[in-house]
Amino acid sequence: MFIILALAVLLLTGIQSCSPAQPPNIAIIMANDQGKYGDVIMEMGLELYNLEKDLSENSNVAGRNIRSHGRIEETSLEDSTTLKQDLLDIVETQNGVVFSRKEIGIINGRKLMAEIIEPETTSYHKRPAIVFLHGGVYRAGAPDQFRAQAAFFASVYGCYTLSLDYSLTPEGRLWPEPVLETSYAIRWVRSIAEKNNIDPDRIVLSGGSAGGHLSGIVAANVQTRRYPATGGLTAFSSRPDVLVIFNGYFDLVKYPLNPQVQQMIGSEDAEKVDSASRELSTIYQVDKNFPPVLQMVGTRDPFCKQSIEFHEKLQSLGVHSEIETYEGRNHAFFNKEPDFGLTLERMEKFLIFRQGFEPQN
Fold first, then answer.
1. 0.70 cut: is pTM over it?
2. d(CA 27, CA 50)
3. What are the structural domains, with CATH classification, of the chain?
4. Dihedral sign computed on CA atoms, order 224, 258, 215, 339
5. Distance between CA atoms of residues 360 and 196, nearest Å
6. N or C: which end of the chain has fewer CB within 10 A?
7. How far is CA 253 from the centre of its chain?
8. What are the CB-based long-range contacts (under 8 Å, 24+) for 222-229?
9. Taking the alpha carbons of 28, 33, 35, 36 in that order, is the dihedral positive or negative?
10. Which H helix or E strand runs over 79?
């Protein structure tokens, strides 16, 4: 009876399932026509990037590792409501990590700033690096969105983490400035690798929403070469070794976001918007050389369906791709309890297996 009722609801409402062909966990209904959500996404993104982000549920792996290194007072995983705040406190007090904000270059006349979080002491082993990209529909947002994740990976795994303060449209900085800046940031990390004991072959690029979209475009640009290397350091590669994407978007042709595209390119001309929408769609630019990807997305996120289609496209090319869908979760779900810990654990597992992350001694 339940199955018959569910099918009836799908047929009557025009809503389709948002789940991969071989889902990792769940299938749930999802709006079929995402194009009509363009204005909603614009406003939703502006508000959600700055959600209050306390944690009410821990992940086993994350909780075990961070406590085993003496950074966090031991509590029951089931009872903990403070993992994220504890991680932020680590940064605030610089307890075992060093926090700094620095200029890493100048791109087309703009000083490129970044938040750096790294361990106070580093292992003699070469360590990974992570470049984080915040969300905010290219109109808002700040590098501190991923400060807790950065603190975790710096504290537990000895990572060098960089959260980039890339260009936003209210500054009058239009596309492709964010691509040029992010590509430069990856080159910059490689340029300091030897001096800072960083493994140049283990550079992770991770972003949420607009930052997830930007991550995909930057990775694809290594092959398409649509956007030239800008700012110098051209002896180093801009290619990330793996991507970790939180509720990104990848197909602005099938699922238009015209209001956002108009702001990104500074034009409302229909032909220019159509052309830019394809240029801004990672799904049409990937090939077999695209780096391994982990996506995490809520099943009630308007970007869920295209995230799964992007995952399936990568698999069809032979690219290693993983997607984790979270039942009933909306856009930017990973910022707040209980999903911060769950997604942190999933990211951690992916990086252990794909990049050989090991806790620092």
1. yes
2. 28
3. 36-355 (3.40.50.1820)
4. negative
5. 15
6. N
7. 21
8. 222/289, 223/285, 223/287, 223/289, 223/290, 224/285, 226/176, 226/279, 226/285, 227/176, 227/179, 227/180, 227/183, 229/183, 229/184, 229/187
9. negative
10. none
Q: Which of 154, 207, 152 is nearest to 185 (CA)?
A: 207
Q: What is the mean pLDDT of the chain?
A: 83
**H or E segment and range at residue 214:** helix 210-224
Look-up: residue for tokens 């050989």? 356
What string of DSSP letters covers 141-183? --GGGGHHHHHHHHHHH--EEEEEE---GGGT--TTHHHHHHH
- Alpha carbons 49 and 168: distance in angstroms, whole number: 14
Distance CA 169, CA 134 (A): 14
- Residue reference for tokens 């909603």: 40
Residues 1-43: tens digit of each pLDDT? 333 333 333 333 333 457 665 433 322 222 233 333 334 333 4
Question: What's the token pair of residue 57?
Answer: 């549920």
Residue 344 in contact with residue 206, Cβ under 8 Å?
A: no
49 has a pLDDT exceeding 60: no
Q: Which run of H or of E encompasses 41?
A: helix 38-48
- Closest CA relative to residue 42, chosen from 166, 171, 139, 160: 139
Phi, psi (degrees; rounded to nearest 5) at 288: -65, -15
CA 293 to chain centre: 10
Owner of token pair 């470049």:
131
CB contact burial 87-98 (16+ within 10 A = b; e otherwise): bbebbeeeebbe
